Amino acid sequence: MRPKHYLVILSMVMLLFGCSEQAKVKKPEEQNKPPLRLNSTIGNLCNLYAPDGIAVEGFGLVANLNGNGSSECPTRVREYMIKYIQQMLGDANRLEAMRMLRDEDNAVVRVYGYVPAGARRGRKFDLFVEALPSTQTTSLKGGSLYTCNLTSRSRLGVEGAKILAKGKGPVFINFAGKDKPNLRKGYVIGGGKFQESNRLYIELKRPNYRLAAVIRNRINERFGEKTAKARSSQIVDLNLPNGYKQNYSKFANLVEALYLYENNSSLQSRIKILAKNLTEPRNPDIEYGLEAIGKPAVKTLVPYLKHEKPLVRLRAARCLVNMGYADAGSVLVKLAKMNPSPYKYEAIEAIGESSASATVKSLLREFLSDDDFQARLLAYKYLSEASDLAVMPKLTSAGFRIDTMLAKESEPLIYIKRKDQPRIALFGINIPLGQNVFLSLDKGNLLLDNPAGKDQIMMLRQHPDQKGVIGPIYADFNVESLISRLCDKTVKSSGVRSGLGLNFTEVVRVLNELDKKGAIKSKLMLGPLPEMPERANTIEKLNE
User: Fold this and answer.
1) Domain count across the chain
2) What InterPro entries does this protein's entry cite (predicted)?
3) Does a structural domain hold residue 24?
4) What is residue 28's predicted lDDT score, i.e. its pLDDT?
5) Residues 6 or more apart from 306 whose CB is under 8 A from it?
6) Which of 517, 519, 483 is nearest to 500 (CA)?
């Protein structure tokens, strides 16, 4: 019996020993699971991916060319256009589509543009249109681009290519350049509309469900719920929070600078170190680090608003205005109003680009009357984007906007916006015109005159679609009245017209010519034109 007892005891000891050894062996997934480094920034643990800019192209139809169009186009392009027109008409009437292409009031054009980096669905962008080579189209002046599809430039002409954007709108031709304009080319200002939902997301350098959840929670804690969503063990999707909708690159930098976790002691230590470095040579990472921390840094930063160096005050105020500290706005205004002020534009931009409230942004109103025209334009840009009451908009029947602003005790200014959105900004109410106004364009097809004894400007125009003239139309001797009468398309029940029905191209041309003659009693500034992107060379292949 004793040997049996020894065997049983020995077996139990071995079993217990084996269980103990087994408990010490980690499972394979536990061996590969990295520890969470909560004292790291998100940028150290992840790569952040943002959508790049995209070159897009397509073909479209420009209408209302008054016989200056052409029915010519390559066979493959023609077949594509016939199918597309049939879809747009909502039926399979091939003959009607072919009739539209044969009509010399229309022209098939090449359309191209560039969707900016970080663009979200609905983002508008400028387009370029040009008549196809080796066609009889002579001019796109007065034309309007029908809705067209735009694909990636590299996929132009490829059947089934994904539609990334749509394009449409009136064609703008620049008559204000030094050289005579090429009437076969033009712009559609703000005519492109992005259709995709580009993703902004974080990719963990090593998959880890727990870390992905921690990152998601930390971002939502700092920027608000639904900003981040963990889609897998390696991917965290991001939505742009309020205040950063138009500035995805800054939001991306803040996310990368965000620490996963800090106790109060280490946090306060980090804030003090970063704040002291505001006095060092410019380094945007310092401001990103402070703004990523957010409101806990306010108390430490406030004393820097009184620093002896203007640059330090600027950097501290720029951080604080994004943290909701309202007094930072007035500090930025004082910096902008210094004489001289080396940081004038930066201070205005700091308010305009910030996530501050509308009340803080309204501080920019006083710069609408600034002696510095560039400061005025910056203030107008940001106040317009914020729909501030200081900018009084009026949509014309020609589709562009007139923005009127008070300009107290300062020189009136007319600014023509020719990029992103067609607009005419008037810095001043009732900007006067000279009493001796006379202008004849296109061999007398458009005429402006100030007849003797009349206290108004008389305008006539050759009717674009039929024989006869439109007019006479009368405008008061101020710029807003003139613009309104030039572009108004309203026809009263009696058949009398309220205006000449000119488009943005023609209105800008008239204002520019009047300015050359000294007939406008204010400064006229023409904004920059859209930058033309590269084009694909696929058009040659489509001719084969």
Assistant:
1) 4
2) ARM-like, ARM-type_fold, Flag_FlgI
3) no
4) 40
5) 313
6) 483
- Whole-prediction pTM value? 0.86
- From residue 498, alpha-carbon distances to 74, 458, 485 in Å are 43, 12, 7
pLDDT at site 453: 64
In order of 172, 182, 370, 377, 510, the CA distances from 175 in angstroms are: 9, 9, 30, 23, 10
Cα–Cα distance for residue pair 136/240, rounded to 1 Å = 48
Residue ranges in 426-523 assigned as alpha helix (H):
479-487, 504-516
- What gap in Å lies between CA 396 and CA 379, rounded to an integer? 23
The edge-to-edge listing of strands for the beta sheet with 421-427 is 392-395, 401-405, 421-427, 413-419, 523-526
Contact (Cβ atoms closer than 8 angstroms) between residue 36 and residue 89: no
**Domain contains 544:** no
125 shares its domain with 96: yes
Backbone angles phi, psi at 280, to 5 degrees: -80, 170
Whether 3 is covered by a domain: the verdict is: no
Helix intervals (H) in 302-447: 310-322, 327-337, 344-352, 358-361, 373-385
Q: Which domain holds residue 271?
A: 264-373
Q: Could you tell me which residues come within 8 angstroms of residue 268 by beta carbon, excluding any fewer than 6 positions away?
A: 296, 300
Cβ atoms within 10 Å, residue 537: 9
Percent of the chain with pLDDT over 70: 90
Which residues of the chain register pLDDT less than 50? 1, 6-10, 12-32, 34, 36, 539-544
Mean pLDDT across the chain: 87
pLDDT of residue 115: 93
- pLDDT cut 90: percent of the chain above it: 64
CATH of the domain at 269: 1.25.10.10
